[in-house]
Structure formats: structure tokens, C-alpha cells
Write a structure and sequence with these properties.
The chain contains 7 helices and 17 strands. The chain is an alpha/beta fold. The chain has 2 domains: 210 residues, Spo0b-associated Gtp-binding Protein, Chain: A; 173 residues, 3-Layer(aba) Sandwich (Rossmann fold). The strands form 4 sheets. It has a 6-stranded mixed sheet with strand order 3-1-11-5-9-8, with no helix packed on it. A 6-stranded mixed sheet has the order 13-14-12-15-16-17, with helices on both faces. The protein is rod-shaped. The two termini are 35 Å apart.
Length: 389
């Protein structure tokens, strides 16, 4: 099962309450107050891990709740701090706050209600989704030629984006422990009989969205041969069948070279017209190529599904531009597949006449023809991008 989007509920641990106690020892029958403080609640921490490739763990555990802090005890003993909850997620995970208040780019503080009576006052500002939270909200106009206008705005506020292995982010901070009565003793009030309760931990609902981080993204229409090509250049073994939409979720393959260089290739399920408007789950597929260094436009040069290859080429570019204009500036290779079919040679000549000044690499992935040259071109293109960075 491949899970690349999941909604979770996260709650940090509550702080322990302070203790009301007095020192009672031999020869000191009326000792002073010695109630201990409560321990802080545990944090919910996200940690990026390159050994994971989907959000299956969160699918089976959608409630992320950290440990509460221990209560204070007598004899000045403080409660123990709650254990942090470390949640491992794959690199490339984007976290959105769901159903929260709209926030600007600055931090928004919320005062906890003051405690009543003799329990003291908890007035420390608590920053919901605090720390290094990027409270960014996409506010795109309706005529913006991008899928962000339709999909990302409805997702809420961007909380964080975990890219590198080992990168951590505090999603919810634990509540502070309450103070024991020993902290409220003064010369006038020597026997305070009250203490503070613990603060509640931060909580909220979040949407985890995975965008695969790969070197190469394979883009094309259904039945263009993307899975066959992935099998030819790597050890990945996705399902291959002679009908459209065989691939239902992104597939990852590793291209290995004799000098131990490796490239990560992502096979995106087939796109159709209107993918930028989420037709055929277009957004769920297109988001996985946003982080790819180069794109490979794979064309069925034989016209198996009775479509002209040059029309497919123009339509793919249109869908990419309408989804995210920045993708048009991404380096890309145009690969003509199925050159083993009878009609492919003639269609290739027509394609080159119609699409001028666009280099085309011809292959027959099912038989391995041209695959070695393609692997070399992929490496050169990726190294060129890495050299510019």
C-alpha cells in the first residue's frame, strides 16, 4: 500500500500540576511549604528519514499523542518531564495545518485563560504550532495558471517542509508544568495552600503530504511505456500491462552506474488532459514531480492509443505549465518510445518536422534499444543541474 497523503491529529503532552505540601519532620512540626513543580509535557517532533518512502505508518496510527508530564510531589520533588514523541516521516513531507485560524507570516500568540481562585495565574503566551513554524498561506488569484490556486489554498496553512535526512520539526509543544506551593511563599503569606495546574499541550489536525524527492521524473500519457522504461533502467519491477492506468501510484527506481553513482527515478502515473484541474487525480500525480531535478517526457511514438505524438507533447507541456509555470524552466529530455512498432519511424519523422529545435532520443524500452544512451544522458543532465547548484 502506498500512502502519500494522510490527515492526522497531534497533541503534545499536558504539563503536570504543582503540588500543595508542607514539610513535616521530627522537631519541625510546622515546616514551610515544599510542594514540587509539575513536569513539562512531551513534544510531538517530526523527523525526516530517507529510509521511508511513504506515510503508511501514519495511516495505521493517525493519532499522535505525546506523554503528559508528571505531577509534583511533596518534599520538593518535581514531576518528571513527559517523553517526546518522535514521528519519522519520509523526506519530502509537507505538513499543512487543517481547520485552524488564518495567520499571517508573523507568529500569533494565544493567551491561556487565567486560573481562578487561589491557583495562581497561567498567563504565559502559548504560540500554537510555535517554534520555527512558517505560517504561510497561499493566496492566489482565480486566474493564476497554477494548480496551487485550486488545491493548495484549500489545504490551509503551510507548517513545515521536511527535506533533508535527520531534519526535525516540533509540530506541537508540550505544556509547561504548574508551580508547587513552595514558589508562592512570601514573608506575608508563609503557608500558601494553592499551586498551579499544568498547561495543556498544543494540539491540532494536520495534513501530511508527500512529494517524492527524485533526480528524474518520468512524465507521459497512460500506456506510453513509463513502467517498462523504469524496469529497463533500474531494478524496480512495477506492474506492466498493455492497457492504460496500470500504474496507480508513483513508482521509485534506482539507476546504478559502474562507478557506483546512483540516480533516483520516479515513475508518475499517466497524465490526461485536464490534469492541472485534478482530472484523473492529476494533482496527486503532478505534485510528485515538483522536486525532480530533470523531467523526461516519454512519448508513444507508435500512436498505440490513436493519438498523435506531437499532440501528446504539446498537451503535456500545457498541463505542466498550467499546474506550475516553474516546471517549464526545469531541464527536460524528450524520449520517443516504442520505436519497434511499424508506425513509429514515420511518426518520428513527422514529429521532428513539427517540433523543431527539440532534441529527441529514440528508444524501444521493451527490448532495451537505446536504454544505455538514455542512462548516460540522464546522468549528464542531473550532474549539470547539480553543478549549477
Amino acid at each position: 500500500m502506498f500512502i502519500d497523503e494522510i490527515k492526522v491529529y497531534a497533541r503534545a503532552g499536558h504539563g503536570g500540576r504543582g503540588c500543595v505540601a508542607f514539610r513535616r519532620e521530627k522537631y519541625r512540626p510546622k515546616g514551610g511549604p515544599d510542594g514540587g513543580n509539575g513536569g513539562r509535557g512531551g513534544n510531538v517532533i517530526l523527523r525526516a528519514d530517507h529510509d521511508l518512502n511513504n506515510l503508511i505508518a501514519q495511516y495505521y496510527q493517525p493519532r499522535l499523542i505525546a506523554e503528559n508530564g508528571g505531577h509534583g510531589l511533596g518534599k520538593g520533588m518535581d514531576g518528571r518531564a513527559g517523553k517526546d514523541l518522535i514521528v519519522k516521516v519520509p523526506c519530502g513531507t509537507t505538513v499543512w495545518q487543517v481547520g485552524g485560524e488564518e495567520r499571517g507570516a508573523e507568529e500569533v500568540c494565544e493567551e491561556l485563560p487565567a486560573s481562578k481562585g487561589l491557583l495562581g495565574t497561567l498567563s504565559r503566551p502559548v504560540i500554537r504550532y510555535a517554534g520555527s513554524v512558517q505560517a504561510l498561506e497561499y493566496d492566489l488569484s482565480a486566474d493564476t495558471p497554477s494548480a496551487l490556486a485550486g488545491s493548495r489554498k484549500s489545504r490551509g496553512i503551510l507548517v513545515t517542509d521536511l527535506l533533508g535526512h535527520g531534519q526535525e520539526f516540533v509540530l506541537c509543544r508540550g505544556g509547561r508544568g504548574g508551580l508547587g506551593n513552595r514558589n508562592f511563599a512570601t514573608a506575608v503569606r508563609q503557608t500558601p495552600r494553592f499551586a498551579q495546574p499544568g498547561e495543556p499541550g498544543e494540539e491540532g489536525e494536520f495534513l501530511f503530504e508527500l512529494r517524492i524527492m527524485a533526480d528524474v521524473g518520468l512524465v507521459g500519457y497512460p500506456n506510453a511505456g513509463k513502467s517498462t522504461l523504469l524496469t529497463a533502467i533500474s531494478r524496480a519491477r512495477p506492474k506492466i500491462a498493455p492497457y492504460p492506468f496500470t500504474t496507480l501510484h508513483p513508482q521509485i527506481g534506482i539507476v546504478e552506474y559502474p562507478d557506483y553513482r546512483r540516480l533516483v527515478v520516479c515513475d508518475v502515473p499517466g497524465l490526461i488532459a485536464g490534469a492541472h484541474q485534478n482530472v484523473g487525480l492529476g494533482h496527486a500525480f503532478l505534485r510528485h514531480i515538483e522536486r525532480c531535478k530533470i523531467l523526461v517526457l516519454l512519448l508513444d511514438m507508435a500512436g498505440t492509443d490513436h493519438r498523435a505524438p506531437w499532440d501528446d507533447y504539446h498537451q503535456l507541456l500545457k498541463e505542466l505549465e498550467l499546474y506550475d509555470p516553474d516546471l517549464m524552466a526545469r531541464p527536460r529530455l524528450v524520449v520517443a518510445n516504442k520505436l519497434d512498432e511499424p508506425a513509429a519511424e514515420e511518426n518520428l519523422k513527422k514529429f521532428k518536422r513539427r517540433i523543431r529545435k527539440t532534441p529527441v532520443l529514440s528508444i524501444a524500452a521493451a527490448f532495451g534499444d537505446g536504454v544505455d544512451l538514455l542512462k548516460q544522458r540522464l546522468r549528464e543532465a542531473v550532474e549539470k543541474v547539480e553543478g549549477q547548484d
